[in-house]
Structure formats: C-alpha cells, structure tokens
Amino acid sequence: MAMKKAKEIVSSNAVVVFSKSYCPYCVKVKDLLKKLGAKFIAVELDKESDGTQVQSALAEWTGQRTVPNVFIGGKHIGGCDSVTNLHKNRKLVPLLTVLETGSTHSKPVSRIRSNIIKIRQGDNRSTEVEGPSRARKTVHAELNTIKAKSDRRSGH
C-alpha cells in the first residue's frame, strides 16, 4: 500500500520531495526549488500517518533510505547532495523547465496557468505557495542520464 502511494504521488507530480519537516537537508532542497521557482510537492513523511511505511517503500524502490528523496519527471534524482550538485553543474534548472504536473511530464512549465508550490503537511492537508516559473526547453535526455546514474548507484 505504501509503495503504491509513493508511486502514485511520483507519477502524478512533476517534482516531488519526500521530506521531513525538521530535516535541515530537506529544508535546503525545498528552499532551492522555491528560489528557482519550481512547482513541486513536498510530502512531509513525519506528518503522514503512514510516513514510516512510505519511507521504507521508497528505500525498497530507490535504494535510498534518507530524506530528502527527490524525483523529477518521474525519475529518482537522489537526496540533497544530488540536487545541489545538479544545480552547481547547471543541470537542475533545465530539468525543472520541461516539467508540468501530470503523467506525461512533456509540456513546458511556461504553459502552466498557475505557479503553485504545493506542500503536503499531513494526510489530507496541504499548503500552497505562489512561486515564479522558469520554463524554456525540453531536456528528457538529461533526465534519462540522471536516472541511469541513479540506477547504477542503487544497483537496479
């Protein structure tokens, strides 16, 4: 059940941060995404009734037990170090610019009518925060490269 929930969240949102509200690394990633104007959903596992089970399911799925556990375009990116390294290497913004919430992840963010960052704060509560959008081009090849590197690291 927890695995199904995690996969449904990832498949229905362009950018997902599985997080814990008190984790400084999670705060760093969420702050970076907000600064870049990314539209994302943060699932605060410490506020979810099944958060421990979801975190275990994520560990089984990705090989990563720690948070933040970040997905972009349905692809597992990794944690804080992976996200900040992508940003330092100027690869994060291009990844974020091609995404729109939904299962296809193929429309540019510039076509999104609303630039809302949705942060889940428990089983049925969420907070929405306005944020600017930075959308320009498609970079699915980069997503696949990151996914391949992630798979090699986790042994999948």
TrEMBL record:
One of its GO terms (biological process) is cellular response to oxidative stress. SUPFAM superfamilies: Thioredoxin-like. Keywords: Disulfide bond, Electron transport, Redox-active center, Transport. It comes from the Eukaryota. GO terms for molecular function: glutathione disulfide oxidoreductase activity. Residues 15-77 form the Glutaredoxin domain. Pfam families: Glutaredoxin. One of its GO terms (cellular component) is cytoplasm. Belongs to the glutaredoxin family. CPYC subfamily. Has a glutathione-disulfide oxidoreductase activity in the presence of NADPH and glutathione reductase. Reduces low molecular weight disulfides and proteins. This is Glutaredoxin-like. It comes from Raphanus sativus.
